[in-house]
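User: My collaborator sent over this chain with a note saying "see what the structure looks like." That's all I know about it. Can you take a look?
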Amino acid sequence: MRILLVGASGFIGRHLLRALHAEGHSLVATSRSGQGSAWPGVEWRALDLALLATDAAHFRWPPWALAISRMSLSLPASPWPISTCSV
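Assistant: Without extra context I'll predict from the sequence alone. Here is the result:
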């Protein structure tokens, strides 16, 4: 399965990335810089959610992406509440 993993360089995302990769999934992983651990079959793309909130053209969503899950833990001071989920 091809999976778009938003926040793949963070604590939760990198563990999920490892597990999905081990299961043989094809992954498009995002981080603010567009860089992360080099894994065969993983394509990295830059995605800054704060920038995306003000500039919708910042990231072109793949047409095959049916569900998107943001793999980040929000702290009380974070502008991104933990309940945020895009589908």
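A starting point for your reply to your collaborator: The chain has one domain: 2-70.
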